[in-house]
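Structure in, sequence out. Go:
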């Protein structure tokens, strides 16, 4: 309903009210009750005398009728006696106000708008007739006190909205009364000749009339407040409490003369301790409105002093939105009331700039910026006074102001102790102190500033310079990437068009500036490798798009020169090499304007290292020994540089694999090549193999290249296997093979000697190594059979690695169901390492694996293969060894039965036939106790009609049977039983999912009348086993079998 349509409806209702106000009031009452979801019946009160009305009221209340399951509520809204009926379980249903989705929001807005339009239309006449408001307030007061949630919620919302609208009426009356008093004062100050007595009398009468109307309105407001608010602000429903707090704060804001005092503020203070975050949030948002108005601060002094500690503690609220808005409230208070918060309070609030929730950190950053960073230089004077001092050189005012703000920021950050969290500090200050953080020319000028007599006091210590460089790098990252750092939530995911344009402009500015200034910074901090490492991150955030100019190319060449110098330094700092490799990778991208200069500089570096490596290896391989320690250091430094660049760049054209392979020969390893050197060589060869595989789609254009690649991979595996016997553990960790997993991953933690932190780090390392091995399985680098050793530990290490192994199982099953099923076979785990090959553990492992087959139809082939392989595993050795009385692994069939529950009916019949062919020669021995696992397994396959049942419950189910004691094998009843099942189960239309030799005869129709003797023997065996089952379980066979002669 639109606003105009709503006004039309209310206008029609007012016309009806003027004609028959009783019926119109009943229509309005029915409307409010229908908005609660139910209907009302009414009867006219026949008496209006006070005593009789009191007798009627004493008989009213809520009554429950348990027989009909209904509740009744009677109440008086004079002149109507209303009866509302609703089910006793009404709270289990939804009513319009709480319905989810757009309808619930639409109803809430339309309902509140209806109340406001109704009161605004009635404010000039009907509100003051003493009839409408009396009946409406009585209705809302009674229903808001109901035990039914729908009535209580809807009518509480309507009542507080009526009070808000009445405040507007009271404010309009106060404004009219103020104007009338002004006119009265003007008229009374006139001389006696000019005064008009009738006009004064009229104004006096109007003022009295307006005062009376305002008193009536305030009386109604007081009735609603005491009858509804005081009962409902502590309601059990948080929605009702939120409504009360939201409206109370709006009343204090709108009508401060009546509501803004400690008698009403205490309710807000109390509800800030509410258990529900939504209620606390409404209180904080309401207080933001009150503290934001400077005219209301005088009335908030007592409240502030009493609840200041609670406001400070709300910044630690577990709900992020409540904590953020509490910080915003304290920010508003600090700007208006400077003496409320102490310095200790501010120090506590400043630290929230490192919070993981971005809105909270942003408000804390704004507070930090307003208190610490908006400081003028202590010696700053007006420009006129500066110009008079010609002897003193002019100091850049902007530089001085920036230096003061920067020192304040450095002092806070270094004293707070969060030196490694610069990224969060920059992100928290980005919205409020962006002018400082994005002032890259001034910040770099300060870093490059040399101590001179004119720059006394502007220099930074080495520790401060390191922090400034970190801030500089993080501000560059923030400007280039935009989103918040990792670990910080609550950031805006989609930027507006204006924000995106600002980010692109900043990105272009930083690229242009640092392309020129970064060589100077690298030159100044060339001996401090931590600072150089940080500075080498900046080229990774350069804007790729752009039009190259002559100055740009010159600056790029100079930058590449200094980056090459840092990478080729004899010290070979590892972090510098890693960042230099990443920086060259970004600059060598095809989209950049300086890719030519970057690739030339990179190739020059690699050529230099290649030549150096060649000369060093010639000496080592020729002399078969390192002459001096300096030779070791030089070779190790060269290997480390090549490995760092090989990680990010394809260096296959320099053929480093063949050059480095001799260092891992058996002869070199026996001579005692240093461990660190072996590690670097292994990593270089590893990267060479990976790059070769990565580019194989382009390079494998002939058979010779494919054979060369395979030979390279085989050579690397051979060299890796040599390193398995290396005494150093770090060398062993360079390969991800099954033996390593069994020795290093699937082991218990060393609880005795390691601390909690060391155990956690060890656990994380083992998870990383297992994940690396599983990735090789998933991506097809290793054969699927190599997963057996991992899956065998699924149960024992479920708490440590269960998620990784389970995900690997699903991924491999998607790749190849048959190969994955071979790896899932429980007897594969039975052949695993000691400690895993116990019957209980393998049975539990089989149960866990069976649960992973969620859809038996899709996994039918895999499940059938698991059963068939398990049967062959049990009977293969038994068939080849005549002297054995029973298969040695017969108990494995009990484990295999865990998968039977997932089989579909045709596969069960097929597997039963396959099992009978394996056991046809041993029917006579089935009565022995050692054959019970076979009986158990066959029962799981025979449970065709009991899908989903447990095998034991199926075996022990009640079945009537013929007496079997003393019956010889092959008797008439025995054949009858066989033939009945043969005619029901072995139909010619059933096709086997696993083709077997000689199975074609089973599907021919001619054999339904006279089955072959071989199948008769199989059915005889089935009958024998079934009889034995009944003997074991204490049950009898079914006597309802149909006898059919052969």
């Amino acid at each position: 309903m639109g606003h105009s349509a709503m006004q039309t409806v209310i206008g029609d209702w007012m016309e009806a009210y003027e004609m028959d106000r009783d019926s119109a009031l009943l229509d309005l009452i029915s409307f409010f009750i229908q908005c609660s979801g139910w209907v009302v019946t009414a009867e006219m009160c026949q008496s209006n005398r006070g005593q009789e009305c009191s007798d009627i009221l004493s008989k009213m209340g809520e009554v429950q009728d348990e027989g009909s399951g209904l509740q009744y509520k009677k109440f008086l809204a004079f002149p109507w006696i209303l009866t509302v009926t609703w089910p006793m379980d009404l709270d289990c249903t939804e009513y319009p106000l709480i319905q989810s989705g757009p309808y619930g929001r639409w109803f809430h807005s339309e309902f509140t708008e209806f109340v406001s339009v109704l009161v605004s239309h009635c404010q000039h006449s009907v509100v003051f007739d003493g009839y409408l408001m009396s009946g409406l307030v009585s209705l809302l007061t009674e229903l808001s006190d109901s035990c039914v949630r729908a009535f209580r919620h809807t009518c509480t919302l309507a009542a507080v909205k009526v009070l808000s609208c009445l405040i507007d009426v009271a404010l309009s009356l106060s404004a009219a009364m103020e104007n009338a008093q002004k006119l009265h004062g003007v008229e009374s100050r006139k001389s006696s000749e000019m005064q008009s007595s009738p006009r004064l009398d009229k104004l006096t009468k109007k003022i009295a009339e307006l005062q009376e109307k305002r008193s009536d309105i305030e009386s109604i407001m007081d009735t609603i407040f005491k009858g509804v608010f005081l009962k409902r602000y502590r309601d059990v429903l948080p929605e009702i409490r939120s409504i009360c707090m939201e409206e109370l704060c709006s009343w204090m804001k709108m009508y401060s003369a009546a509501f803004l005092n400690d008698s009403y503020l205490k309710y807000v203070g109390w509800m800030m301790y509410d258990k529900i975050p939504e209620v606390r949030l409404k209180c904080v948002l309401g207080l933001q409105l009150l503290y934001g108005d400077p005219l209301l601060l005088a009335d908030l002094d007592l409240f502030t002093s009493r609840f200041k500690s609670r406001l400070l503690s709300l910044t630690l609220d577990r709900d992020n939105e409540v904590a953020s808005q509490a910080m915003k409230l304290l920010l508003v208070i600090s700007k208006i009331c400077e003496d409320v918060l102490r310095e200790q309070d501010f120090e506590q609030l400043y630290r929230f700039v490192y919070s993981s929730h971005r809105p909270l950190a942003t408000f804390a950053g704004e507070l930090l910026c307003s208190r610490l960073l908006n400081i003028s230089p202590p010696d700053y004077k007006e420009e006129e006074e500066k110009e008079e001092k010609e002897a003193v050189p002019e100091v850049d005012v902007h530089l001085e102001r920036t230096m003061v703000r920067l020192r304040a920021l450095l002092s806070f950050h270094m004293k707070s102790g969060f030196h490694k969290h610069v990224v969060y500090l920059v992100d928290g200050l980005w919205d409020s102190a962006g002018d400082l953080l994005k002032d890259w020319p001034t910040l770099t000028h300060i870093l490059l500033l040399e101590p001179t007599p004119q720059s006394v006091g502007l220099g930074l210590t080495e520790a401060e310079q390191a922090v400034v460089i970190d801030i500089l790098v993080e501000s560059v990252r923030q400007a280039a990437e935009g989103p918040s750092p990792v670990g910080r939530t609550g950031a805006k995911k989609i930027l507006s068009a204006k924000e995106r344009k600002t980010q692109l402009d900043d990105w272009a500015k930083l690229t242009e500036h640092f392309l020129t200034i970064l060589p100077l910074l690298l030159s100044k901090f060339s001996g401090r490798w931590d600072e150089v490492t940080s500075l080498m991150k900046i080229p990774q955030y350069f804007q790729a798009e752009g039009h190259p100019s002559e100055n740009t190319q010159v600056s790029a060449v100079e930058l590449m020169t200094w980056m090459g110098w840092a990478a080729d330094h004899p010290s070979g700092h590892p972090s510098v090499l890693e960042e230099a490799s990443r920086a060259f990778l970004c600059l060598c991208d095809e989209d950049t304007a300086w890719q030519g200069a970057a690739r030339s500089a990179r190739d020059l570096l690699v050529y230099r290292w290649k030549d150096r490596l060649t000369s060093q290896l010639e000496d080592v391989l020729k002399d078969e020994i390192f002459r001096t320690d300096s030779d070791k250091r030089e070779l190790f430094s060269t290997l480390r540089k090549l490995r760092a660049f090989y990680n990010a760049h394809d260096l296959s054209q320099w053929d480093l694999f063949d050059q480095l392979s001799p260092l891992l020969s058996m002869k070199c390893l026996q001579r005692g090549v240093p461990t660190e050197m072996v590690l670097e060589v292994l990593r270089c060869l590893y990267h060479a193999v990976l790059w070769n595989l990565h580019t194989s789609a382009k390079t494998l254009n002939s058979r010779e290249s494919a054979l060369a690649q395979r030979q390279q991979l085989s050579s690397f595996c051979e060299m890796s296997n040599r390193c398995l016997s290396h005494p150093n553990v770090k060398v062993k960790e360079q390969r991800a093979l099954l033996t390593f997993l069994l020795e290093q991953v699937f082991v218990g933690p060393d609880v005795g000697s390691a601390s909690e932190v060391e155990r956690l780090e060890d656990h994380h390392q083992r998870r990383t190594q297992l994940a690396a091995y599983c990735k090789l399985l998933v991506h097809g680098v290793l054969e699927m059979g190599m997963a057996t050793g991992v899956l065998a530990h699924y149960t024992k290490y479920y708490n440590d690695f269960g998620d990784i192994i389970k995900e690997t199982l699903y991924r491999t099953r998607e790749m190849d169901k048959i190969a994955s099923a071979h790896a899932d076979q429980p007897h594969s785990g039975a052949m695993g390492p000691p400690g895993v090959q116990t019957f209980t553990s393998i049975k539990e492992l089989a149960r866990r694996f069976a649960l992973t087959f969620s859809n038996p139809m899709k996994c039918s082939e895999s499940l059938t293969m698991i059963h068939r392989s398990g049967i062959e595993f049990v009977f293969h050795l038994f068939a080849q060894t005549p002297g054995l009385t029973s298969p040695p692994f017969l108990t494995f069939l009990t484990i295999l039965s865990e998968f039977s529950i997932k089989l579909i009916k045709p596969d069960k019949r097929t597997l039963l036939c396959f099992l009978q062919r394996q056991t046809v020669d041993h029917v006579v021995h089935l009565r022995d106790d050692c054959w019970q696992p076979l009986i158990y397994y066959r029962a799981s396959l025979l449970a065709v009609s009991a899908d989903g049942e447990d095998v034991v419950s199926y075996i022990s189910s009640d079945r009537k049977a013929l007496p079997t004691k003393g019956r010889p094998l092959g008797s008439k009843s025995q054949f009858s039983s066989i033939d009945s099942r043969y005619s029901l189960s072995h139909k010619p239309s059933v096709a086997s999912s696993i083709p077997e030799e000689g199975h074609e005869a089973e599907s021919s129709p001619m054999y339904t009348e006279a089955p072959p003797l071989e199948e008769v023997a199989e059915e005889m065996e089935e009958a024998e086993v079934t009889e034995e089952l009944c003997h074991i379980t204490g049950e009898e066979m079914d006597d309802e079998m149909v006898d059919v002669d052969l």
